[in-house]
Amino acid sequence: MSVPSxxxxxxxxxxxxxxxxxxxxxxxxxxxxxxxxxxxxxIVSNNKVFIVKAYPASDAAIEGExxxxxTLSIHTIFIDGxxxxxxxxxxxxxxxxxxxxxxxxxxxxxxxxSSPDTSVFVYDLTDMSNPTVQREIVVAxxxxxxxLIDDYVYVVATQYTYxxxxxxxxxxxxxxxxxxxxxxxxxxxxxxVDIPEKSSTMTNVVSFHVHNDDEAVTTESxxxxxxxxxxxxxxxxxxxxxxxxxxxxxxxxAIDEVLKPYLSETLSEELELVDQLSLTDYQKxxxxxxxxxxxxxxxxxxxxxxxxxxxxxxxxxxxIHRIHIDNGVITYESQGDIPGYVSDQFSFSEYxxxxxxSSTLQGWSLRSYLGSIESQNNVYVLNMNLDVVGYIEGLAPxxxxxxxxxxxxxxxxxxxxxxxxxxxxxxxxxTNPVVLGELKIPGYxxxxxxxxxxxxxxxxxxxxxxxxxxxxxxDVTNPVEVAKNTVDVSTDEGYQWSxxxxxxxxxxxLFDREKNLLVxxxxxxxxxxxxxxxxxxxxxxxxxxxxxxxxxSETSEKPExxxxxxxxxxxxxxxxxxxxxxxxTVSTNMVKMNELTTLEELNSVTxxx
Length: 609
Hints:
The protein is mainly β and 609 residues long. 10% of the residues lie in helices and 47% in strands. It contains six helices and 46 strands. A hairpin with a 2-residue loop joins strand 34 and strand 35. Helix 2 packs antiparallel against helix 3. The two termini are 33 Å apart. The N terminus is likely disordered.
């Protein structure tokens, strides 16, 4: 795509064709370890941020370098015009509370236990060789994720609220630091939900204007469960986590509402006696489960799985919270839940005032006393109040969801155990999802990406090797794998297998349909090269590879167990991108530039450690 370069380099303001971070939702940028503005590359490497003049390739050189306190661990960045946003984690910044004498205590044993802080630095890039910090914001808690929408950055952090060292504390109040100054979060900005979780974990949501340093930082704190998955649309932040536990009261209600009609009078009396014992609820729960485990055979065989699945849907659930965002304003809206586990952010999609979610009901939690049941896969449609309005359940029994992609009013779903069912699901009527077609092929896909309106790219594995597939869904009732390429990497020991960071990190995936370009890091678990494919509707052909592996000295000695020690993380390619007709590959140690068509090497820049 051609977009105006926002840098102030020689090409600033001109139309430059360059790739950007592969994101899930259009208009919702995601932080990454490498960002580009068409002239410069901004790279997180060796706990620093390097600013590399990248275009034109012949002039490539490091133009700026940002270093940080050794207590900080640098994670990811945003770039927006002349502003660079850096995210870091620290275990040395203050978690603040008010002690018995009313004095703030910082650090030391008085910090909240096991709760790191998220530091956010906003740099002005007017002078690329000497960027200046305009804001430093410290948010209590570990970073769950961040998004950049228009001019606002939204940060979500999870803060644990327990400690072994708070016996003398009479008040614990979340706070935020802005440029070293403490900003207390008012009680009207600290919230709990109507159906609270047992976990007393704070989810801190912070927003700030990336360019206007005078606009106040907004902070809202929510007493929610431990955030596991974050999905963000242009209007909403969805915080999700899975619960797989229950207490004695819940077990009693499940027995009364589900099991009782199937239990003998003797077994029912035994369970009622447990409730009258002088035991803790935990002990009663243990005894009840033991009785059920030993007497489960009394339940008719034809009913056991039905009963187990009905109870399981109550036990294994994903809790979802919707938080509305609008120009930096943060407002909690609703809470809901669905049966099963979600795999990643692509399990969610907001579309026309509905949230679509895929999940897998695994069945592990009941195996101790009701026996094992087959897993099942489901798709649910929720309204904006997060009430379920439509669903389809029981897909691919015994398998697990490996990849989901919602595109418009369709859902593409991949499950796997021994084969790869590729499902096409119609969501045009939110209240009545329907499976339109299904394809079964060897292997699986763990990431799905649209090629065009009627074709989907799948990245996954077949046996031990990375597989790239192209699915044709023009006939939704009969999806077809029209092309594939399986990559084998030979080791010195003769093994044939391969791996790719794109299997679990969508930001490592580079695709441009107009250029027929697909680039993936592929290699072993420790060292990956850039595999460049020419992808069309007819074929996926390997054009060549780019490697960063340095040549070994003839005098260098290899360890005796070479295979075990043969890792090369520093030269393993992590990101691939293009500017005009040049392919840029980035590892911890270097940036290499190759001509996009011939892959001829043009230049390279070493990133000093």
